[in-house]
Design a protein that fits this description.
Distance between the termini of chain A: 71 Å
CATH architecture of the largest domain in chain A: 3 Solenoid
CATH class of the largest domain in chain A: Mainly Beta
CATH superfamily of the largest domain in chain A: Hexapeptide repeat proteins
Helix content of chain A: 10-25%
CATH topology of the largest domain in chain A: UDP N-Acetylglucosamine Acyltransferase, domain 1
Largest interface: A-C, 77 and 82 residues
Oligomer: homotrimer
Number of strands of chain A: 36
Number of helices of chain A: 5
């Protein structure tokens, strides 16, 4: 990461709050892990289970909970502390503050890069940033402070809310995958996708992810949804507030995912299903039925060395008949 | 969706055929589901199993089969009807007609957008459209009426047939993944990919999908193939006519997929396999062997709540030894 | 593939070595398989198991091992030979030589295409090529002879080594997927990604693949790493030398993959895991734990016809209880 010009703990606490223990004059120039930190670094303890790292850490300052701070002192930790109820959340806010100080930026400093192609009747909110080589088609709407990184496509009629980030390569509003079969010729006849995409505020969409436009109604992502890279969202999908999808997830058409859900990387959600709020799907699992109840769900074939896998996989194809053989043995016992 | 200026049933039937029952003067301004329709909407009944929706539907007109129309009347449906043998196919054609009327369009109305980068000796058929910020490399060929949406790459020497649609972010003709291992150094030595990509007519390729060029011969997609978003087609793959692949599918090098196949989202087809015509692979299944016989094939680990999955997954690693234990018990019975 | 102006075996052997058996004046204009070759073609025998193809092959010349050449002669093969220890490696080098002769090229012949957008303080090595419509953000570094194909994004502060190839649509340095949960509101709070991406030399990255920048430290790909298309590499992943990943693989944040590994298409590696050197993961397998030992690992649900799969999948959900029933039967025997 880029170092800051050394900055005092006092200025951090003044911006982000928290109680400073030790010298608030201490100068910090980097954020790093407790393990790697030196005396000019600030670090954080996200969970008490990592508290053993205090003993050897050379960090100049640690962000910690009040309870863990006692552990730090007991372990002989020499640095200063910033005490707060949720150190990981504080760390997140610190990274945001840090970025503003260092002003990391892309190739574009202007609001609308001159190489971006903007269609007709496009509505842009205040302080919208559109990166180099983006395409914003006719009648698209982008809310205040939203950022399109370079090389994003926003299709016609699609709406993006306020404070969103669309990363490079994102495609919003390509046609949904809809065809009717001509039963006589076996050809696929295109169903024109007449809906659009509506994205709420504070939504972030990762690089090269795709959100298809709806067939008749719109595809919808509610406020605060976070999508990682290379995700496919089919037409007419609806994703509830503050739901997060990890990389390479595919959500088929018309699936309805609740609020505050998480879906692990590479998982697949089939079409026309409903997932309740607070449903958590493990990575690489396949959701083949609706889920009405909050909770954690998984379906992964366990990894094994090749030879063991092969034996078990072969036997798996006989599993149902094995069940019948057990039944038979049980009946013989009666 | 965008509303039409109200248009009469007569003009729809005049363009698309079908028998109009009731007032052909009725004015329609939207297509929507039977459930949500109001009196200025047209809807459709794709299957008799949804016929119960007739009772409460306020649709101004429904596209239906003759047999289902009786059900509609019996259920007290008040609207008009367009009777046809295949309502879903009629609906598809209606969406096409609708789009032409509303002239939804992207940022580009010119045929070749001025920001597109076109190489040397490129051959373009009549009425080809190339969107903003596309790259068409040297010696590429694009057939009549094909459309490259914004930000598509078409590589050198690659051919696209007539009436194709390539969505935003598509990459045709990147190098196939070919390396020889230098057994002495452990390094990978690049095998230059000297083939190209040949795409037939009426092919549609979804956003951010990739079709690699062949190593020596070409990678081939035959007429009428439909690919969804984020699909990877390896070098020297051959896909037969009217086969459709859903989002996030990966097809490894030199696989040969027949005609009229469907492959569900997130499925993987390994390299050098052959699939017969009319093979249907379920979503997220992994095709590890050639399939000689038409039919439906699946391989998905069933989703379960976390705790149940964990117990079953652990036991799965002992499955082969469980089989042996059953065998032993059976032998003891003899 | 593009034919060469006929070129003599002598010129090939002079460039690439090997012992020429038969007329070195023979003119060659194409590389192709033994099966399809005609007398003006050169072919290769990568493994003795394909030696039966010699009998009917019309190839003008074959690249073969000394031992296999005897088989060729015994089978009545009439063509010339180039004898070498590793014919497949020789073939790879021949494709490279061939490409240089035919000078296949993209739309761009200039080193930096005029439509590319280059940020401030970017450092470019000798003979770097940047294709049309690329974006290279501020402070990025690209080593000598590396090639960015059209429509690549290289983010700020990211480093690419020498002799690399980044294919069309690649995104290097988008933000890693990092959020802290605000436990009070249920909202995700962005953790700014302050690290960058460091890519070694001789790395190739396939179309539309994404390498995220690190949260605090950098994401690292060592020398000789080869990535296929549509691959997702999360923040702070570290991939060792000469490791190759096939298409559609997802590697979650902070995973550490050793050197000389291979990961099959569509596989998923979960976050914070370590894989030893020389680990080989089968396609579509999910790596849920660290692997300390070199070897081959697999976890795929076997494909079956739909009806069989359904019966076995249902039974799989009872597998743990089946184990208990077997145990019970065994105890009854005692």
């Amino acid at each position: 990461m880029r170092s800051l010009n050394a900055t005092s703990l006092a200025s951090i606490v003044s911006a982000l709050g928290g109680d400073c223990i030790g010298s608030s004059e201490l100068l910090i120039s980097r954020i790093t892990s407790l393990e790697n930190a030196i005396s000019s670094d600030i670090s954080f303890l996200s969970s008490p289970k990592y508290a053993s790292q205090f003993a050897s850490s050379q960090a100049g300052c640690v962000i910690a909970r009040r309870a863990d701070w006692q552990t730090a002192k007991a372990a002989g930790f020499k640095g200063a502390g910033i005490l707060t109820d949720d150190p990981y959340l504080y760390f997140a806010k610190l990274t945001q503050w840090w970025k503003r100080q260092t002003q990391l930026g892309g190739a574009t400093t202007s609001l609308i890069h001159p190489t971006a192609v903007i269609g007709q009747r496009v509505q842009l909110g205040a302080e919208v940033q559109i990166g180099a080589l983006c395409v914003v088609e006719d009648d698209a709407v982008i809310g205040a402070r939203s950022i399109l990184k370079p090389r994003v496509t926003l299709g016609s009629d699609c709406h993006v809310g306020e404070d969103c980030i669309l990363h490079s390569g994102v495609v919003i509003g390509a046609d949904g995958f809809g065809f009717a079969s001509n039963k006589v010729t076996g050809e696929w006849v295109k169903i024109e996708q007449l809906g659009a995409v509506r994205i709420g505020s504070f939504v972030e969409i990762g690089a090269n992810s795709c959100i298809d436009r709806g067939a008749l109604e719109d595809t919808v992502l509610e406020d605060g949804v976070k999508l990682d890279n290379l995700i496919q969202i089919g037409h007419n999908v609806h994703i509830g507030k503050h739901t997060a999808l990890a990389g390479c997830v595919g959500v088929a058409g018309s699936a309805k995912i609740g609020a505050h859900c998480t879906i692990g990387g590479g998982a697949v959600v089939l079409g026309h299903l409903s997932l309740a709020d607070h449903v958590h799907i493990s990575a690489a699992s396949v959701v083949t039925r609706s889920i009405r109840k909050a909770g954690n769900y998984t379906g992964i074939f366990p990894l094994d060395d090749n030879a063991s896998w092969e034996k078990n996989a072969v036997t798996l194809k006989q599993l149902h008949s094995l069940r019948d053989r057990i039944k038979k043995l049980e009946n013989l016992r009666k």
